[in-house]
Amino acid sequence: MPSNDDRRPRLTPAVADTRRAVRESLAGLDEGSLVLVALSGGPDSLALAAATAFEGPRAGMRVGGVVVDHALQEGSAEIAETAAQQARDLGLDPVLVRRVTVDGHGGPEAAARQARYAALLKARAEVDAAAVLLGHTLDDQAETVLIGLARGSGPESLWGMHPAIGFLRRPFLTVRRADTKAACGDQGLEPWNDPHNHDDRFLRARIRDRVLPILDQELGGGVVEALTRTADQLREDAEALAHFAQEQIGDLVEHAEGGLSLHAGALASNPPALRQRIIRLAVQSEFHTSLTRQQTLEVSRLVTDWHGQGPIHLPGIRVAREGSLLLFTAA
Ligand SMILES: Nc1ncnc2c1ncn2[C@@H]1O[C@H](COP(=O)(O)OP(=O)(O)OP(=O)(O)O)[C@@H](O)[C@H]1O
């Protein structure tokens, strides 16, 4: 029977969509486990908290929340407390508030992100939660991909954010930001609007407010979905290449005095994308360091353009061609 009570949350398409996304993301977690929603108080994470408060118990799970106070702006403690109270009102328990120190290392955005993730994972360990849910949306994903494209990133970073990696889950990577806002409105929730999200000093805000709308308009719409489709395809391709590289590495690598050697002939017979991955993988496993694309290409030339040139010196690693072998030793 239809209700005339306007205060009752309505099961609108946006609410249903957010719940569906959370339901799918929780699948695979054990019954009886605790999941934590990472909450800023913004529309995405507030909609996430509401959807998880609904779906979690139906999947036999307990739902808590964690709010990080970056202490970067005046009134941040009140903003964090408001978000925490909203989470408690939705039935989340426990709700943790963690104040962090952001040291500014690597730029303000990166430093805040690093401090935030560290605090979220620490809180997870404290309460032994099975997962921390983050409210990144399809729009966030498209922004990440576009920024990566413009900066010449490789497929591993162009594929964007993972829906599930380690303890982190991002149920809303299939949900549009407009729908998280709508879901808040439909459930009578009042999110906090972070002024930084539209602050022109931040690249992401400029991409969000200026670049994407123009692209969308000029290309006739659908740009956000298109960018994330590209990311999905890149992820599949890159995962396949990583798999093949892993498969080959055992046959190609031999341990040598103070390092390792790779068979140059076998490496040369691989297509460049695979060859470069094998080189990177070998270096990563032996020296625990990631080569840049430029460094990888330089090493690769000792395989494909060998004319007796001398060794290459990378930070901490010497790479030399010796006969049919490529020799990597600690410098
Ligand atoms: N201060 C915080 N405390 C806890 N979690 C946070 C905090 N800030 C961000 N997060 C988590 O990371 C997600 C992405 O944050 P980000 O700031 O990139 O996006 P957003 O679009 O502003 O999200 P929201 O609308 O939820 O604030 C959020 O949805 C939330 O899950």
TrEMBL record:
Its EC number is 6.3.4.19. It comes from the Bacteria. InterPro entries: Rossmann-like_a/b/a_fold (IPR014729), TilS/TtcA_N (IPR011063), tRNA_Ile_lys_synt (IPR012094), tRNA_Ile_lys_synt_N (IPR012795), tRNA_Ile_lys_synt_subst-bd (IPR015262). GO terms for biological process: tRNA modification. One of its GO terms (molecular function) is ATP binding. Residues 35-209 form the tRNA(Ile)-lysidine/2-thiocytidine synthase N-terminal domain. Residues 262-321 form the tRNA(Ile)-lysidine synthase substrate-binding domain. ATP binds at S40, G41, G42, P43, D44, S45. GO terms for cellular component: cytoplasm. Ligates lysine onto the cytidine present at position 34 of the AUA codon-specific tRNA(Ile) that contains the anticodon CAU, in an ATP-dependent manner. Cytidine is converted to lysidine, thus changing the amino acid specificity of the tRNA from methionine to isoleucine. This is tRNA(Ile)-lysidine synthase. The lineage of its organism: Bacteria, Bacillati, Actinomycetota, Actinomycetes, Micrococcales.
